[in-house]
Amino acid sequence: MLLSRSSRECIAKQEDGLFVNEKALTVQWYGKRIEFTLTEFTIIKILSSQRGRVRTYSELMDATRQRMVEVNTIVGHIRRVRNKFKSLDSDFCALENVHSIGYRWRE
């Protein structure tokens, strides 16, 4: 699979930028701490634990700890997560939507 230059740069950039501390429930992006809700933290942990693997909407719905969750709820959480990363790094592109399936954290 050939990647465009910008895709290669994004992948190389994000690989070493994310630090998820499961004990302290904190996330750092290039050494800068970002505050997330517990649900947002759980989504990041799930997506980044196996980079490149697509996580379905159903898998991500389990992270919300709610009984009734719609796809739009997950989309909203992902949007807030992206916005928080982009507030520190306008070039952030590690979260990728896989149309009609779910999301993945780029390898």
Structure commentary:
There is one protein chain. With 107 residues, the protein is of the alpha+beta class. The chain has one domain (5-105): Arc Repressor Mutant, subunit A (Orthogonal Bundle), CATH 1.10.10.10. It is 44% helix and 20% strand. The chain is built from 4 helices and 6 strands. The strands form 2 sheets. Strands 1-2-3 form a 3-stranded antiparallel sheet, with helices on one face. A hairpin with a 3-residue loop joins strand 5 (95-98) and strand 6 (102-105). The model is unreliable at 1-14 (pLDDT under 50).
Give a quick precis of the structure.
It contains four helices and six strands; from the N terminus they run αβββαβααββ. With 107 residues, it is of the alpha+beta class.
Describe the secondary-structure layout.
Elements: H1 5-15, E1 18-21, E2 26-29, E3 32-34, H2 38-49, E4 55-56, H3 57-62, H4 71-88, E5 95-98, E6 102-105
Antiparallel strand pairs: 1-2, 2-3, 4-6, 5-6
Helix pairs in contact: 2-4
Task: Using brief descriptors, characterize the structure shown.
107 residues; alpha+beta; Arc Repressor Mutant, subunit A; 3-stranded antiparallel β-sheet; 4 helices; globular
